[in-house]
Design goal:
With 97 residues, this protein is mainly beta. The chain has strands spanning 2-3, 5-6, 12-13, 22-25, 28-35, 38-45, 59-62, 68-72, 79-81, 86-89, 94-96.
């Protein structure tokens, strides 16, 4: 995982283009960068891929292409985000497909 570069005034550049994609799970790869202890990632999912594990941490993201759907372990309605939209989950057991 790369670290962001500090620019004038404490601003940061997040260098996704200089960070090679790393496999996270079958069909999922990310370019991850740490900024002030927070993981920023450009994540690519192959069509139809579903993470096996449930995550207890909240997530936020912006969809560039395709569609991202968050499923919740407690049966709450699926949260789906499409290109040009952001989505955020709040520390609930969720997984992404």
């Amino acid at each position: 995982m790369s670290n962001a570069k500090t620019e004038a005034g404490g601003s940061r550049i997040v260098p996704f283009t200089g960070t090679p994609p790393q496999p996270e799970a079958p069909g999922i790869a990310s370019r991850a960068v740490m900024v002030n202890g927070v993981r920023w990632a450009l994540v690519e999912y192959e069509s139809g891929v579903l993470r096996d594990e449930w995550c207890e941490e909240g997530h936020s993201g912006f969809v560039l292409d395709g569609e991202v759907a968050y499923e919740f372990q407690d049966g709450a309605p699926t949260l789906t985000s499409q290109p040009g939209n952001s989505a955020a989950t709040i520390c609930a057991s969720s997984r992404i497909r």
